[in-house]
Specification:
236 residues, mainly alpha, 4-stranded mixed β-sheet, 4 strands, 5% strand, globular
Length: 236
């Protein structure tokens, strides 16, 4: 798939400000990939994206290099740069990483009360999106929930690690057609984890999270395997 019409990125040009850098371009493209604007397998056109954002080819290539390092893009010799298509094994590995990191964050919390305002906002965001039948919005809110959970560790390095893991995982989510079936079961489970942390029950929250991630790993891996075996059936 060759994405040539990048006109929608023109609105993002203002985000670059007067100090345009490859890192800022990478931030914009990372967000657009996470949103599904550039779906897995899409070819990224240097000409159309560079023109839409008003950046030089060198700047754009450096942004591509950064996102390739993050495993969101792949460079194919003589073909160009593409949004990465995950293997099923990648999805399974991403969940193993999430379980190691997220459960460790809860295990390592100090004494209550815990700073759960960010988690509460993400839960409310997901529930509002569900009421609006916006299941892509529910997916986004769920990502926000888990980023806020990891942020409880107060570690910039852990935040950066999970940002990359969750961005990669969204590549799998975009390949699955039925977003509601994928994400709806976890709305209530997010609230259960939030309620446990509000009550100061760190160990209970960790148990809930471990079961949540195990169940999600099974469900998402199976759905993704089916989608990549039958690409036509996963088309939006």
């Amino acid at each position: 798939m060759d994405v040539r019409g990048a006109g929608g990125l023109t609105d993002d040009r203002a985000l670059l400000g007067r100090t345009s850098t490859a890192e800022r371009v990478a931030d914009i493209l990372r967000t657009r990939i996470a949103e599904g604007y550039f779906p897995p397998g899409a070819r990224l056109s240097e000409e159309s994206i560079g023109g839409a954002l008003g950046v030089s080819r060198n700047t754009l290539r450096e942004a591509f290099r950064l996102l390739t390092h993050e495993r969101l893009l792949v460079h194919e010799l003589n073909r160009g740069v593409f949004v990465r298509v995950l293997a099923v094994e990648d999805v399974d590995d991403l969940y193993r990483t999430r379980r190691l990191v997220e459960c460790a964050v809860l295990r390592g919390l100090g004494q209550p009360p815990f700073a759960v305002d960010g988690l509460a906002a993400a839960v409310a965001e997901g529930e509002a999106a569900a009421r609006a039948d916006d299941w892509t919005g529910v997916s986004t809110a769920n990502i926000h929930f888990h980023r806020e959970l990891v942020a409880l560790a107060g570690s910039a390095r852990t935040d950066e690690l999970m940002r990359g893991v969750l961005a990669e995982l969204r590549l799998a989510f975009h390949a699955v057609a039925d977003a509601r079936t994928l994400h709806e079961p976890y709305l209530g489970r997010n609230r259960e984890i939030l309620d446990a942390l509000r009550a100061g029950e760190r160990a209970a929250a960790e148990r809930l999270l471990a079961r949540y991630l195990d169940d999600s790993r099974t469900r998402v891996t199976a759905a993704y395997a089916e989608a990549v075996d039958d690409p036509a059936g996963s088309a939006r």
